[in-house]
Amino acid sequence: MTDGWTWDESLFEGAAAHYERGRLPYAAGFVAALADELGLDGSGRLLDVGCGPGTVTVPLAGCFAEAVGVDPDAGMLARARLRAARDGVDNLQWVRARAEDLPAGLGVFRVVVFAQSFHWTVQDTVAAAVRGMLPPGGAFVHVAEVKELPSAEGLPHPVPPYAAVAELVRRWLGPVRRAGRGVLPDGTPGGEERVLAGAGFAGPTRLRVPSGAVVRRSVDDVVAWVHSRSDGAPHLFGSRLGEFDADLRALLSAASSGGWFAERVPDTELRIWRTPRG
């Protein structure tokens, strides 16, 4: 993890209640694309590390005999259980643990997924642990939004004013990004490809899954997005959370006279590494 920053359990404290409403979905075709690439047929086991509220675990579970979601945040796991029950998915197990606790007696998996969570881990340690949990030909999969600015042309409402929102958060919490009880002056680390190559993985294969969807977002949705993030988690504002939210809502209301925003759902990128066969 980043030098000078230590993970603590408050990283996403209070964010789970806002996550599903606030975050944009992955492209609808990501499950089919991954199943086709890996030949998933309902057998084997899936491990989703840093599973959050089951955003990826629940829709992927039907491609496996069993799926396990791991997350250190109890609130996230509670929301994941609710999502699985709502969607009628029952081949799931939820485990409260950090990625650094792996293998944690969980056994062997056909596929291990990190959906925008690997950057929060001690990467060398976690990559080595995951390598030992996969059989020959097993897959390490990173799921992420494509980091491009989608076009706003033709949208029925203005795009949320994300730059102004970020500036408001900085005015309230300081110029350096907050993360749990610490700060991340340089953000989270990259270097994923180097780390995974060093752990013995081959790849990656890159798949871009197009979205094309346009979603309408209310002021409440954008407020939820802010509080779903580690750098805007509710606990960071302490007793002044209500005051911050009032400022945020005023900013958003001024940016859209009708109180509605719109944006294009980003494409989803799947990066797949495999363990050597034989």
Labels describing this entry:
transferase, single chain, alpha/beta, 278 residues, globular, Diverse_substrate_MTase, Methyltransf_25, Rossmann fold, 32% helix
Any idea of the CATH topology?
A: Rossmann fold
- Quaternary structure of the protein: single chain
The helix-and-strand class reads alpha/beta
Query: Are there runs of 5+ residues with pLDDT below 50, and where?
Result: none
Q: Please indicate the count of domains.
A: 1
Can you give the mean pLDDT? 96
Order of helices and strands: HHEHEHEEHEHEEHEEHHEE
What's the CATH class label? Alpha Beta
Overall strand count: 11
Radius of gyration: 19 Å
Main β-sheet, in a few words?
7 strands, mixed
DSSP strand (E) fraction? 15-25%
* Number of continuous helical runs: 9
Q: What distance separates the N and C termini? A: 32 Å
Task: Give the name of the CATH superfamily.
Answer: Vaccinia Virus protein VP39
Please tell me the CATH architecture by its name: 3-Layer(aba) Sandwich
Helix content: 25-40%
Strand arrangement across the biggest beta sheet: 3-2-1-4-5-11-8
Tell me, briefly, the overall form: globular
Domain Methyltransferase: 47-138
Keywords: Methyltransferase, Transferase
InterPro entries: Diverse_substrate_MTase, Methyltransf_25, SAM-dependent_MTases_sf
Organism: Micromonospora haikouensis
